TrEMBL record:
The chain crosses the membrane at residues 7-25, 45-68, 80-102, 108-127, 139-160, 172-193. CDD domains: HisKA. The lineage of its organism: Bacteria, Bacillati, Bacillota, Bacilli, Bacillales. Keywords: ATP-binding, Kinase, Membrane, Nucleotide-binding, Phosphoprotein, Transferase, Transmembrane, Transmembrane helix, Two-component regulatory system. Residues 355-560 form the Histidine kinase domain. Its EC number is 2.7.13.3. It catalyses: ATP + protein L-histidine = ADP + protein N-phospho-L-histidine. SMART domains: HATPase_c, HisKA. It comes from the Bacteria. InterPro entries: HATPase_C_sf, HATPase_dom, His_kinase_dom, HisK_dim/P_dom, HisK_dim/P_sf, PAS, PAS-like_dom_sf, Sig_transdc_His_kin-like_C. This is histidine kinase.
Length: 579
């Protein structure tokens, strides 16, 4: 009796071996599941069932010298139900061959009985609905095939051998145990297989969700890094938890060596305390404590930023998740707005100039004419008074002319002109003005300048304005330098004085209309010069040092034809020296 129970337990172990192999495969192989070099789970399950059949066949024996003790039918039936048609047929053929080799006693009737081949049509017919059933449905399908097969194996020897009434109670109990064990064991094995697959599917779903979450997080991080807005995340206590690349670059504009690690974990107030206005920090702190939005323009290290802060929440109606802080650099926008204000002021100047032209110049011309007539008929001692009035009228007329020139927005009529010719035409006038002031003028002209597309009248006005400004900035014995030079794509005119220089705080305001440092100035001379240069697609740059003087550098562009002409001019100028 003990040996019979032991043999049954060995068969149970052999029949369950495929489940151990299958579980090992799942635990080791799900990571490389998508690799084509590896078997899928279903194929490995069929192979494991085949190996389990071999184990059961090797350990097979007879119970009470009558009942064939072999539980290979359990892995065989489970493999056939889970396999496809071809794999199922192959496994069934393999099971039959193993039975032919190992079954005791041999013979066709025993082969049919021990393999349950008569139930194979039912088994293959139920394989397709088996795959779509839930766990209990699959167990019932297996039982509907397995129980009749085991009943034939247990009861058939008793039909041709001793009567059931002659069998002892212990033998009957063991036989009944052997009949029920495969049914219970088959259901348990199916349950564990389905549980393992469900766990595997859950792992794959979780892995897919995790990978999707990582992809979406990475995508969101890339989006925040690409967006040209500085973004920073803060916790409820105001400590930095995350920031994008734009925010890091913003910090590096003020502290070039700062790292992301040095910012994360710091309080935002400590990062901004040195430069931001205290009242702005106080309002930012209060908005954080009150969980309200905050939006304000802040001055930081001579730049203007728009700071926006808003609270974050966990889900809909959830708890606090900190705050998001965004910063936009408005410095260039403020400059653009300032320039736009200048444009609006110039527009107003144009409107004023148009009205002044018609309403004031004509009466002034009449007044000047009558003053000249009255001067001729008045005594000589009154000439100085008439001269003062006429000069003031002329000065007012010059102001009107500056208004008109500055308000002009039409395209200048240009022609090919040599810049040196314009300078040489103005040279006598500049020398005369310099002599009256006790100053000197030096011309340092490049011998190989190309022809430029210029409006001679406007260029003369530009040179006179800049030169006279330089003379007015110098004391007697000062020296004014007019120099020309050219590079690959531009010609430069430098007008440099030896005056007191311009403070750095005033350099940015030089070309603002109506801004002047002179007692009698109108603030329209330099804006007029800039307007003339821009109408020639040029620019004006100012270099100044206090106590040493100021240089106005006017640049005019020219193209490929101008470069060729400049090279030819240089060769002609060098030719006499080579002789």
């Amino acid at each position: 009796m003990i040996y019979a129970v032991k043999d049954i337990l060995l068969q149970i172990t052999a029949a369950c071996s495929f489940l151990c192999m299958f579980q090992w495969w799942i635990d080791q192989g799900y990571i490389v599941r998508r690799n084509e070099r590896f078997l899928d789970d279903q194929s490995f399950l069929i192979i494991s069932c085949a190996l389990s059949i071999v184990f059961c066949m090797v350990l097979s024996t007879t119970l009470f010298d009558a009942i064939y003790l072999n539980l290979a039918m359990i892995p065989a039936y489970i493999g056939i139900l889970y396999a496809g048609f071809r794999s199922g047929v192959s496994l069934a053929v393999f099971f039959i061959l193993c039975t032919v080799l190992f079954s005791e006693p041999p013979g066709l009737s025993n082969l049919v009985l021990n393999t349950g081949v008569l139930l194979y049509p039912l088994l293959f017919g139920m394989a397709k609905p088996f795959k779509s059933e839930k766990v209990m449905g699959k167990i019932f399908i297996l039982w509907s095939v397995l129980f009749p097969s085991m009943m034939f194996i247990v009861l058939a020897p008793k039909m041709y051998g001793p009567s059931l009434y002659d069998t002892s109670s212990k033998e009957m109990a063991v036989a009944l145990f052997y009949l029920l064990v495969p049914v219970i064991l088959g259901g348990g094995l199916l349950y564990f297989i389905e549980t393992a697959w469900d766990r595997l599917q859950t792992q794959e779903k979780m892995k897919g969700i995790s990978e999707k979450f990582e992809r979406e997080s990475e995508k969101l991080q890339q989006i925040t890094n690409v967006v040209p807005v500085s973004i920073m995340l803060l916790d409820d206590m105001g400590y930095v938890t995350e920031l994008n690349d734009c925010m890091l670059n913003l910090f590096r504009q003020h502290e070039p060596n700062i790292t992301r690690e040095a910012i994360v974990g710091q309080q935002v107030e400590r990062l901004l305390l040195q430069e931001v206005n205290g009242e702005a920090l106080k309002r930012m702190r209060e908005s954080g404590f009150s969980k309200q939005r905050y939006n304000e323009k802040v001055q930081y290290d001579s730049r203007t930023y728009n700071v926006f802060s808003a609270p974050l929440h966990h889900g809909v109606g959830g708890g606090s998740a900190g705050r998001v802080l965004t910063v936009q650099d408005l410095t260039e926008e403020e400059k653009f707005r300032s320039e736009l204000d200048n444009v609006e002021r110039l527009t107003l100047v144009g409107q004023m100039a148009a009205g002044i032209t018609h309403e004031i110049r004509n009466p002034m011309a009449v007044v000047r004419g009558f003053l000249q007539l009255m001067r001729e008929k008045s005594p000589g001692e009154m000439d100085s008074y008439y001269q003062i009035v006429i000069e003031e009228l002329d000065r007012a007329n010059d102001i009107i002319n500056d208004f008109l020139s500055l308000a002009q927005s039409r395209i200048s009529d240009k022609e090919p002109v040599q810049l040196h010719h314009i300078i040489k035409e103005l040279a006598p006038l500049l020398w005369a003005d310099a002599n009256l002031r006790g100053q000197s003028v030096e011309l340092r002209l490049c011998p190989s300048l190309p022809l430029l597309q210029l409006n001679p009248r406007e260029i003369k006005q530009l040179i006179l304005n800049l030169a006279r400004n330089g003379m007015e900035a110098m004391e007697p014995k000062g020296e004014l330098l007019l120099e020309t030079r050219f590079t690959e794509n531009k010609v430069e005119l430098i007008i440099q004085d030896t005056g007191s220089g311009i403070p750095q705080s005033q350099l940015e305001k030089l070309f603002v209309p109506f801004y002047t440092t002179k007692n009698q100035g109108t603030g329209l001379g330099l804006p007029l010069c800039l307007s003339i240069a821009e109408r020639h697609q040029g620019s004006i740059r100012v270099e100044s040092q206090e106590g040493k003087g100021t240089a106005f550098i006017v640049s005019f562009p020219y193209g490929q034809e101008g470069r060729q002409q400049a090279a030819a001019t240089k060769e002609r100028s060098d030719f006499p020296s080579q002789l």
